[in-house]
Every structure is written in C-alpha cells, then in structure tokens.
Sequence to fold (847 residues):
Amino acid sequence: MNKVILSVIAGLLLLTHSAQSATQAELNHLAESLQVNYQLIDANPVNCPAPHEKQCYLSALTFTSSTDIDPQQWHIYFSQLMPVYKVDSKWFDIEHINGDIHRISAKQAFKDMPANTAFAVQFYSQESQITRSEFLPNFILAAPGLDSKVIASTKTSVDNETQLELQPYLQPFITDAQLQVSDDDETPWMGANYLYDSYTKPTFKTAPLGLIPSPIKLEQLSSSRIDLSKGIKVVAKKSHYIALIPALKRLAKLGVPQSKEGVVINVSQQLTSQLPDAYELTLRNNAITINANNTSGAFYALQSLAALISLDDLTLPELRITDGARYEYRGMHIDVARNFRSKAFILNTIEQMAAYKLNKLHLHLADDEGWRLQIADLPELTSVGANRCFDLTEQTCLLPQLGAGINANSGINGYYSRADYIEILQHAKKHFVEVIPSFDMPGHSRAAVVAMEARFNHFMALNKPALAKQYRLTEPEDTTVYSSIQHYKDNTLNVCLDTTYDFIDKILDEVITLHKEAGVPLNTYHIGADETAGAWLQSPSCIALQQKTKIHSFNGYFIERIAKLVADKGLNVAGWSDGLSDVNVNNMPSNVHSYAWATLSDEGHKVAHNHINNGWKVVVTSPDVTYFDFPYQSHPQERGNHWASRAIDSKKVFSFMPDNLPAHAQIWRSVKHQTYVADDSQSARTADAYGIQGHLWSELLRSDQQAEYMMYPRLFALAERAWHKAEWELDYKKEGAIYSHKTQQFTLAMQQQKEQDWQHFAALVGFKELAKLEQAGRFYRIPTVAAKKTDSGIDAFVPYPNIAIEYQDKLGNWHRYDSHNKPLQAVKVRAKSINNDRAGRALKLTN
Fold:
C-alpha cells in the first residue's frame, strides 16, 4: 500500500476520533442538498503566490447547506486538473492527494455550518484551466465507515435543445480574465462578432461536383447523367467481391443497393500505379468501371462513388476519376484509456474512417486512468485497472480521477473482452483499417502499476510469493519522489526490474495471440514512451544497474530494450517522438515509427525532421492541428484542452501543409495567438514523412457522444489532407528556410486558391456529408454562427452552406433567419442540424 493511500486513511481515522460519527442517512441527505458553486475568478492573477509566480489561476468554491451541519464530519473529494497549492479560507483546507484528486476538509476550529449560509474557500492552482470542460464534475462526499455519495449539485446535465453538457455547479465565464492566461496572451474571445470579422461566407448555393477527400483528377465527360436509383450490379472475381462488401453495404444505406436491374459495375485490378491504394473510376454510357492496383484501391473507388452521391439525388454525371493516396499512413488515434469508449463507438468510427479513406486506427488501450484490454492470466488488469470508483486502498478499483464519480459501472469505465477485441480487429480488416495497439509505458502506466500491486497483495495473502512477485512493476525500497505531467506520484514502471520486462513480454505475447485468433496479424506495436517523469533516482535496482552498465538515460535504456523485444517478435516498433529522442539511434531496430508531436510554434519541425533523418518513418502528429480534443474555437463553452492550441476548427485542419511544417509560421499563430518564427535553415529533412494522424485524447470526453462531437466534422478535413495534396500547399525547400508572418512565400495567389478549395470543400460538407453523418447516427458539431449588426439588419452566416440559422428575440423566442429579410434586432444566434432536430451552441450578439 503506497504512502499516499496511507496518508488518506490516516486522515479519515483522525476524523473518526475528532467528531461525532455521521449516519448514512445524514450523508445521503447532505449529498442531495449541499449546493456547490465553482467560480474561476482570474486565469492570470496579478500576483501568483510562490512557488508558481510565473503562472497560476485563482478560483473559489462555495458551499451552502439547507440544514445546519457539523463540517467536521465530512470530507469532499474532487478532481482538479491542476494542483491546488495555496488556499485562502477561514473554514477549509484543500490537500492534493494524487493525480487530479484533492480533498477538502474543515479546519479544526470550524465546527458549525449554519443552514443557508455560504462558506467559501479561495485557492490558487498551478498553470491554467480556462475551458469550462476542464472544471470536472462529480464531487464526492465521504465519511468514515459510510458509503460515499456524489454531491448532486456537482453532477452534469444535458441541454434539451443542443444535447450538449451543462455544468450547473460552475459559474458563468464572461470576461477576458477568464480566457487569457498571461499578460502576453492575445487569444481572442471568438464570439459572433469575431467570427463575422474573421470567417468567410459560403459561396456555393448548390452542391458542387466533387468528393471528400479530393481525388487527384476528376473529369466530367458529358452532361448526361447516370441514374443509380435502381441500384447497382457488381461484376468482379469472387475474392474481390467479398472484400468490397462493406463498401457495398454503405452504398445500400445511401439508397443504392445491389439489384439485378442496377447499373453494372465492372471491377478489375490491372492498374499499374506507384501510388498507394490507386484506382480509376469511370461512369459512362450507363455503366461504371473500376480499375485498381489492389483490392483496397477498388474498395476506395466504391467509397468515392458513395461520396459523389447526395442523399436527395441519386444521379451522377458521366465522369472519370484518377486517384491514389498521398500518404501510406492515414491515421486516427483514439484514447480509450482515460475515459472508455464503447465497442460500438469503435466499430462506428472504423466505418467512418474507411468512408473517407483513413486506414490506421491507433488504439490507446492503457494509461494512468485505465487498462482497457482483457489479458489472459492477469485478471486484475481489468477487474481493478479498468474501473474507477471510491476505494482509497485501490484494491477493487482505481481512484476516481477525471471526475469519475463512484459508479464502477459508469460508461467511463470498462474494457474490451478478448472477443470484443477480435471483433474490432476483424471489422477493421474488412474496412482496410489496420489497428495499432498501444499500452503507454514506462510512464502513463498507473493503471498497470496499481493492478499488479493488487495481484501482488492477492497472492501474498495466499502465501504464494513467487506468483506475487512475477509481474510486480514497482520496488518498495525505491524512495524516489517525483510528479508526472498529470501530477501522479506513482505512475511509472521501474525500468530496472526484470519483472517489468516479463510483464511487457507477457502483454505482447497475449496481444499477438489475439491478433492471430482474429486472423489479423499484428504488424506494428506502439510502446508509448512519452512524458516519463523523473523516477528511479533512488531505486536500488537502478543504482545497481547504473554501476554495472553505462546508461545514458534510463528512459532511453527502457525504450531500446523494449524496441529489441518488439522487433525480435517480428513487429515494427512505434513510439512518441519525445521518448524516442532519448535513445541511442544505433541501438534501435532498423524499422522505427516515430510519432512527432512537438508543437509547431515550439520548433516542432526540428523534431520531425531529425527523426526522419534518423531513417525512421515519421507520422506527423502536430498537436497544434491534429489534436481533436482541443476546442474548435477559443471560447470557454467549447469543450477541450488548451495547452497547445486554443482553436482548431475544420478550416485550420484543411489548411495544414504536412509536407512543410515550418511554413506554418507564415500563416498561423502560437497557442497565445502570437506570431512566431520557424527556422529550418539548419534542420532540413532528407526524406518525406510517412503520414499524418488525428488524435482524440479522452481526459475531458466522458461519453461517446462528446467524443463524436469533437471528431466530426474535423475528420473530413484530416482525411482531405491525408489523402490529397492541394496545389496551393507550399513546397518544402530542401535546403531549409526561415518562415514568419513577415515572409511572403505563401503568395496571394496561393491564398486565393486555398480559399476557393475551402469553399468547394465546405459546400460538400454542408450539402452532402453532414446529412450522411446524421443518417449514420453520428453526433457531429453544429457550427457556431458568425453575426453582426449592420445598417440593413443582422447579417449572419455559418462556414457551411445548407445549414439553417435561427435568431432569438428579446422575449426569448427563436425564429428562422432569412438573409433576404434580416431582423433588425437579435439577442442570440444559433444554427440547426441538417434534419432540424438539434440546435448548435448559441452565441450572444453585441452592439
């Protein structure tokens, strides 16, 4: 049992002796009636107390009870992403426990809390929290010997009109002091007026001819049209036909089933092309032909046919498409560890990835907050490591990090059984998607560490010490004090223990076995290896190892050893770029995949280029543009994290030039909305990137619906850039170059071409693709409305055409907006979904 848990238990035991015991009925009543209000006072206080003078933020929690209570009887546990380090209150103390868990206790002199009287605790926290979603729910009321309860006023609810999460415990964010984190932070508040001044109106009035992602070449051959309303009839070799079935099922859902009377589609695989997944698709003379260089190419040709279709028009002109992929690797990363994603979500995501020609699913299966895959012979990984509840000993579950609450059966908890994982693998294979599993190590491993400690305790109680120690991941004699990037004190595997490598070898073998059982061989294993804290300094095993072996870096030693283990099993080795930067390149296997995630405004191009020049295959994963857990816009109501970018909308993703990372200094700004310089004069790359990948980290995504909101429609723009290189993209200068907002290499003509391409893309989204998402049951983000009061009335638009806009009058009533009959006044504006059954987030209008 670790020091943190002993401290917590000691606190509860002390409470038992210092106050009259509460009853379960009293606890239940207080949990239902206690009002908790959280207020972000200032994200950039004038004076931050030591030791975090450079950056902090000031908040307050206020508690009000409907009855008189004795505050000495209770503790409140809550998730606070950034640790509280300074408390200002006459009544309460706040203690950081571990990770994001904090405990609120009454001060010893505070013994009477009268009814209907507000008592506050003001406090300073490290760094910053500025989006509302970062202020987590489900505060837990606890007392010794009683069942804990979630305080009802700290639970979230759902808005009936938007179906978005509401946080009734959190006071409104209304000032720039709640948005900007430092004196040099120039982040704009993206309200309706800002959007009006910064965004461009849609220009297309009808759906253009085209598809997402764009093909290399599309030629309209005549004005004649082919009618697909009677379906299609595919002619292909049996083995080829079977591989096309998932694409044919999608066509059927769009209204184009297979039938004897349907338009004939002749499929062959005789195309010679050097491009990955290449195909030619021809619609002519009331017949369709597909010629591809492999089965996946034919599959994508059918997906292109589906993309050409509008749900309300099943006719297409005679045309020819010549196409092939820009990158071999076109990925989407899904974090199911922090908050679990259902199997249905994964299967649905695979189908949408395939529809837009993405082909790699990087599945993040384990992290500090959860282990999500059943492993034979190690039941604790899922019985303990897959659940968060309120067990301070962590023998039955993990601590309730990330606002998890107390319900082990909640949707944020769970795991994939062996059968589930096999089903995912087989579904992915049918859709030409490769699953790349990842269990982050040696840092980000707390779920595994705690689970294996529970296993240790179990077998020690049975007097089986050999089994107990078999896969133990920590060393009791290690007195190292450290804090991880997410403020854990105990989340890192001991890289100097042989049992650590025995554990990883066991996990690898079991995953390989699952892939074999699925008939889907494992090709690439992602070892994680990022953000390793300063552990092991006082580990006896590490001290002894250092004396025997010259080790340049313990993390590097671990990665090199695991890389060899992975490579010896015939697998490609993959990892995050920061960890891979710790290794001796000469000690690594020949085939290494590096996921380069350093921010572009912080010289991220140098990391990517350096790893390319190591001879590694680099997947571009720049957080500034590929992290879909970040907000669409810099507005407190927009869900997401904020450390690398305050706004990643679809147009930014669409504007990405992954072949020329430093060039973005000319067109983008830093996380604080400042211009920056990218100097590539001494860091030029010698080869191209392997591909790009979008990311959906899940710390702030507690439901599948929230995850879909963050993924769509940005996934369309990711697919566009992964599959298609636009003519306006700035060519990379192999001799290196320096870029900033003052350089003129991205010319006016290129900017105009990009805007034209964006308008075409936006029209396809608005007229075609959002409706297809709705039909598939996906919960996409409805765009916010750009609006401004003009001389002719309220002028309003959204980035995508074919989306209805509404305005609210002074009485609170909503009306359909008509650009030809503009209202003279409006309080708020909002957009509606394509099928009109859901509203988007409303924005206030300012004068």
